[in-house]
Design goal:
alpha/beta, Quinone Oxidoreductase, Chain A, domain 1, seven-stranded mixed beta sheet, 16 strands
């Protein structure tokens, strides 16, 4: 038998990205696809990191050749681990997929049993990937805000990169929990979309993205930032005394041109959010919350579904900032 995958290869300076038909037995012999469980992938997603890998814009991939895809959802085909049985629905995100281990922009994947999370009964595989790595990261950020004691009564919460995958889900989650959410975005024409997700107010991202003062007017009880660089620095400088800022992305840059002033003069907490190597108990908690607390009706508004052959153009669109919300890939929709 065979399966189709988004196959990335590099030989010296020569890079290629293509749909490739692979034989099933390649999963058994390839050191980049070791694992106890073979999953028949049904849906995957395209995230910012996937865009970087598929376009070779950044050295994301650390083993060649590579099958792209940092997340996936599907059904167990076979397992040598007793925790997983044929027919089980599973989700996988992170763990180096698409970087050091063959990923899920493919119709099959061999994965480590320790990486899998049971698909909640209330979610289809398409629903799970509408949430995907971005939504999982968003929920980790939202839980961190709540765990640090910020309540809806504490004040406004700023969400940067609000029209992106992480931002869209964050707006929807926090608003459903009763927080007043201010959505920062360059796409002010997406006002109807962001208001439909629950944003109470929109903010032009441009001032946040420019260099700012170390301490600024206190505005936010909490911030969920997926942008980094000056945006993150300004967010910290504008956070109220005792507030919390979560950092989970670097769309503007990896730098952090800030001062210690917000942390030592206002007691602001900066919490890093890692979705790649996140411990399993925290993963289970986040997926349980996504299945129980997240309004599934909002998934449709923020989700676009494409086929496996569409990922190359979509990757370019993501890096150019032309994608709203989440992009789900039906891996069985082929050209």
């Amino acid at each position: 038998m065979s399966f189709t995958a988004v196959y990335l290869n590099k030989d010296g300076d020569a890079f290629s990205a293509e749909l490739k038909l692979l034989e099933d037995n390649v999963l058994d012999s390839n050191p980049l696809s070791e694992g106890e469980v073979v999953v028949r992938v049904e849906h995957s997603g395209i995230n910012y990191k996937d865009g970087l890998a598929i376009t070779n814009r950044s050295p994301v991939v650390r083993g060649w050749p590579m099958v792209a895809g940092v997340d996936g959802a599907g059904t167990v085909e076979s397992s040598s681990d007793p925790r997983w049985k044929t027919g089980d629905g599973v989700i996988v995100t992170g763990w180096g997929l698409g970087e050091t281990h063959w990923g899920c922009l493919a119709q099959r994947a061999r994965l480590k049993a320790d990486w899998l999370v049971a698909l909640p009964a209330s979610l289809s595989t398409a629903d799970a990937m509408s949430v995907g790595t971005a939504g999982f990261t968003a929920m980790l950020s939202c839980l961190a805000v709540r765990d640090e004691g910020v309540t809806p009564a504490s004040g406004d919460v700023l969400v940067t990169g609000a029209s992106g995958g992480v931002g869209s889900v964050t707006v929807a989650i926090l608003s459903s929990w009763g927080y007043r959410v201010v959505a920062a975005t360059a796409k002010l024409h997406e006002a109807d979309y962001l208001h439909s997700l629950g944003a109470a107010e929109l903010l032009d991202r441009a001032p946040l993205a420019a260099p700012g003062k170390p301490l600024q007017k206190e505005r936010w009880a909490a911030v969920v930032d997926s942008v980094g660089s000056h945006t993150l620095a300004n967010a910290c400088a504008q956070t109220r005394y005792g507030g919390v800022v979560t950092a989970c992305g670097l769309a503007q840059g990896m730098d952090f041109p800030a001062s210690v002033a917000p942390f030592i003069l206002r007691g602001v907490k900066l919490v890093g959010i890692d979705s790649v190597m996140c411990p399993m108990e925290r993963r289970k908690r986040a997926w349980h919350a996504l299945a129980s607390d997240f309004d599934a009706r909002k998934l449709e508004a923020m989700t676009t579904v494409v086929g496996l052959g569409d990922v190359f153009a979509t990757a370019e669109h993501i890096l150019a900032g032309r994608v709203r919300g989440r992009t789900v890939v039906d891996v069985n929709r082929l050209p």
